[in-house]
Amino acid sequence: MVADGIESAVEQTLTRLRSLDAQPPPSTAPADPAAPRTLADLYRDHRMRLVRLAVLLVDDPSTAEDVVQEAFAGLHRHWTGLRDEAAAVGYLRTAVVNGSRSVLRRRRTAREYVPPHQVNARSAESLAMLSAEHQAVVDALATLPPRQREVLVLRYYGGLSEAEIAEATGISRGTVKSTASRALDAVSHVLRPGASGRGTPGRGSAP
Question: How many Å apart are CA 204 and CA 110, to the nearest integer?
């Protein structure tokens, strides 16, 4: 059984990142709420969070940028067939998850792949504002199998419900729930005192 402190640590870390990434650049002018939403509006409002989502999934900002660009290119091709902004954002999330999976599949075929661990300026700024405990959680997430990482990132960074995660990942709600439990167990193991020299952040450690 996963201690409450592990889930709390993951939630606090990814919620903190989400709040940092949601802050618009100083030069961004507020949108007119009365104007019809355009593809450019969605790009401005959602791009940064989608890039962070992809970074958390593929551990490479430049690749994450490519994944998100391709997702928006696909949205442009399907723009007339989407009902509203919610449908468009749902399309983008699914495209980012699928694009990230494709990247990870290609990586497995490369025998000597070494993650570059580079960050662009915005990503570096967000990560630099995290505490050491939050940094440890981000590092632990990077050790998870892709599906487990997807579920936790979509839940706590994306703020999605189990139903929305199931739609974005193409798995059942029951599988979402069981995958999240296994993922939190795995994070607990990584963050347990004595594992990689790190202790468990949050209110307690897993038994």
Answer: 39
